[in-house]
Every structure is written in C-alpha cells, then in structure tokens.
# Entry
Amino acid sequence: MTKVPASPLYYEDIEVGRVFRTGSIEVTAEEITTFAARYDPQPFHLDVTAGTEHRVFGGLVASGWLTAGLAMRLMILSDFKLGGGAVGLGIDSLRWPRPVRPGDRLSSVIEIKGKRLSESKPGYGIMRIDTTTTNQNGEVVLTKSAHVLVPLRPL
Amino acid sequence: MTKVPASPLYYEDIEVGRVFRTGSIEVTAEEITTFAARYDPQPFHLDVTAGTEHRVFGGLVASGWLTAGLAMRLMILSDFKLGGGAVGLGIDSLRWPRPVRPGDRLSSVIEIKGKRLSESKPGYGIMRIDTTTTNQNGEVVLTKSAHVLVPLRPL
# Structure
C-alpha cells in the first residue's frame, strides 16, 4: 500500500492543540559511534567497552545531539509538513531524561502549543511546538520545546 | 610544536566565571548536505539551488542541529576537558541568530555560569555552561545554555 504524501500545511491550517505522530526509527551502534566520532567524541558514545565502564551510563549510549537529530528527521518525514519548510528560531527546553542505546526504536509525538503572527517577518507566523520522543518501551528519551517560523498560506 | 593535552578537570577545578576558547572548524557544503540527508532533509539544507529560492535563507544553509553538533565537537576538543566526560542533562536555551553557510569557520567561547553539588548523584556536581559560537566575521550563529553533570575529583 502506498502512503499518499501529506499536502503541505500552512500557518492557517494548524490549530493549537493539534497532535502529530511520527513514524519510528531504529538506532544502531554504528550510527551512534559514527555520529559521535564527528560531533561528540567521548568514550561512552564511541565504544561499547568504554561505555560499560562509565559510572552514569554503563554501556554505549547515543549522543544527545544524535537523538535530537533523529527527532528532527522523524518530524520532517511525518505528516507535519510545512509549506516552505520548518525554520527553527530556537529551543526553550531540551531534555534527555533517559539515554538511547543501540537497538532502541524511537518515535515522537508533536503537539502545537501556541501560534502567533510574526511581527518582523510578513507572511510568517511563529508556533511553539513541543516534541516528546520515546523508545520502544514508551520511556521518554527526549523532550523539546521549540519556536518555529511557519509560512502563511500564499495569496 | 606539539600542544600538550590538557589534564582532565573536575568540579573542584572550575570556578564560576571561567572562560574557555575553542579551536575553529570550517563548515563545507558537503558536510551540510550529508548531515541534512540523514537528520534534517529539507530543501534549503540539501541543495544550493533550492536554498537560493528560499525566502528566508537565500542559499544553502546548515541545519541548526549540525551547528549544535559542531559546537559540541569544538567543546570536546577544547581545553575544557572533564574527567569522566561531559554528560548533558539539558538545554535551557538554544538559539541560531544567523544561518551557517558553506565556507564559514566556527569557533566558540564557553563560560561557566554556575555550579552546585548534585543532590541525586553523589560524586557529581551540576554546572550551567553558556556557549557562544561565532563565524569568521565574529557574527553569532549559536548561543546555548546547558546544564552538565560534572564529576567531583576522585578520592
């Protein structure tokens, strides 16, 4: 069965309180260590043995920035598709309540928490978008509260 | 001249107000598009032409999550080396005041803004660490305020 791609959404289409559920993605040891080698080269992100010896983690865990990147991928590939794209203005809160380990399967729930017109950019609104990413056991591994620039519907 | 690696720092070694300056790193178009293909697959992060047509950016720009990953790399490779590693608890503010474009060279200033002992994890403190990342023109491309778990000096 082919999934019909969602039409792009504009500011006017999205009400506060709307919830989007993303697909899921599995995190492999290879992606954890490859990402870490470039962006977060610390022993507990690079090597199973070094991770095991770490007092906090007790095993190889993903960089929080990899988890954040995967949450972004899940959002971009979800039905929450903005016309003109999602331009992040900033994050007010980003938390990693639990580590992500090899073999974990992540998915997110995205909720629109607020919207207002942009004062500085005509043709745009700003939405507060909260994301909760969980693993296959329903345990929360990331929460994020973002402000995103969202285009108005073209005239 | 070989640079002597910095000794690892522990909670007790780092006073509030201390500032660390990182090295620098150049951002290439290839890294921008490769990162985006996996973590932020939007036209203005993937393709020069699509970026040029974008109303906000007017050219290929790095995903904000790539900029955050590069800021992390710069910190890990700096003299701000924590014994036991830097375990991020969360981010209270993350902003991207200006886009990062191919050829930009980034570096960061890291400032210790606060420290306290952890109540839940014996042997650890928690530091508030602010990062400002600028491009080769001194323009700020990222600001970040993080809480990081920092090991106490082993007995």
Q: What stands out?
A: Strands of chain A lie at 19-26, 87-95, 105-117, 124-134, 140-151. Chain A has one domain: 11-151.
